[in-house]
Amino acid sequence: MAASFDAIIVGTGQAGPTLASRLSAKGMTVAVVERDKFGGTCVNNGCTPTKAMVASAYAAHVASRAADYGVALAAKPVVDMMRVKARKDAIVRNSTEGLESWMRGLKNASVYRGHARFTGTNTLRVNDELLTAKQIFLNVGGRPRIPDMPGIDSVPFLTNVTMMDLDIVPEHLLVIGGSYVGLEFAQMMRRFGSKVTVVEISPRVLPHEDEDVSLAIQEFLLAEGIQLRLSATCLSARQESGGLSVGIDCTEGAPREHGTHLLLAVGRIPNTDDLRLDLAGVETDAHGYIKVDPALRTTNPQVWALGDCNGKGAFTHTAYNDYEIVADNLLSGADRKYTDRIPIYALYTDPPLARIGMNEGEIRKSGQPALVGKRPMTRVARAIEKGETNGLLKIYVEPGSKRILGASLLGTGADESMHSLVDAIYARLPYTEFQRHVRAHPTVSELLPTVMEQLQPLT
Ligand SMILES: Cc1cc2nc3c(=O)[nH]c(=O)nc-3n(C[C@H](O)[C@H](O)[C@H](O)COP(=O)(O)OP(=O)(O)OC[C@H]3O[C@@H](n4cnc5c(N)ncnc54)[C@H](O)[C@@H]3O)c2cc1C
Description:
With 459 residues, this protein is α/β, with parallel strands linked by helices. The protein has twelve helices and 22 strands.
């Protein structure tokens, strides 16, 4: 006999817990299934721990530059990696334990620990128990992709998950993947004292970003002593005495890079291959992402997919927004769609990169007419005062409607200052109206209207 519920939620990532809370508050009976730590990737080995470690790395970096600010230190700053880890662990523990006790304390909800698999259209098995419900919500997230490169099975490697256990500073960290995850770890570990080499298959890091943005990021990473091996193809790995090496077929540089540790940061794959989705009539695309309609309903009308597993976002805020869409549609009669969402994200290097809407590459590809305004961070008062002038601000507008199409903000505080532009785009505000709003001085935000003073056609 299957235990019967109004709803089953599989996975406690960034959509499941709040959905469970909202459904149970409406009097629905809910089963919450989690096979690992509560909170999923973001809380346990994604956003929360990495940003805690980025903060420690920033402290080390500022301490190393203390003299630039007129501050003399009695001794050279020393990174205590065990304490960096302990600080990070305490922040993570607080979140994951808080989340678990929240779920266990929900009225009308039952928590199941184990791996869920479909046995039919609306039935799942968890350990020895069968669960059934009229509505099933999948929030199963993803995991690191392990590249199929020769030798990878014969060397020890790290991922964003196992990086969380590190309580030493690696002597020489090789990072395969010069994208979002790889670059955050690369800069952080360099600041903790590692020698770091980033190996990237494309001719520049962050190939999805505009070239000037990628090059500005490369410039400050190189200035911190990070080595970049770009256009690196035909990768292989080999165990060596005292470490390992990565074989690289590059136009420039040595054919092997030697290091003590290897981090793989080459993307993520969805946790959909072990759910027996076929038994529920839930289809996936060629990459394993669950196919959904704009309201996030799958090919089985009783099943919804939220968060990274649907491939419609790869961020905590997109997973959370998925929860809001599904809950509002089901409980408040709304007609919300993920397709109404403006793409936004931040890369937490120092300085951070904030991306809103379209970038130059995407605008060019779409053939959309656009004007662009640019300003280097060396001309932003707040950045000069903080001694953090790396980066540039770029904003695009549509010439006819004067609406803001997007922005790439690379600079100190960009992860916060981005949001006035996000709100302006949602409000469909012409940039000329955006420019009339007074902003506090000195901030990065106060310069955003100025970026749009000298707009040039994108040729
Ligand atoms: C290093 C790193 C840094 C990141 N930093 C940021 C950031 O700064 N900002 C940001 O917005 N995003 C960031 N992300 C992305 C963010 O972590 C994810 O987008 C977010 O966690 C997605 O949440 P989710 O709810 O889709 O799934 P997840 O958080 O992955 O949760 C899925 C849950 O489902 C469980 N599960 C899976 N299958 C089953 C099953 N069959 N049965 C039972 N349980 C199951 C898993 O155990 C897990 O707990 C980062 C990611 C990484 C890897």
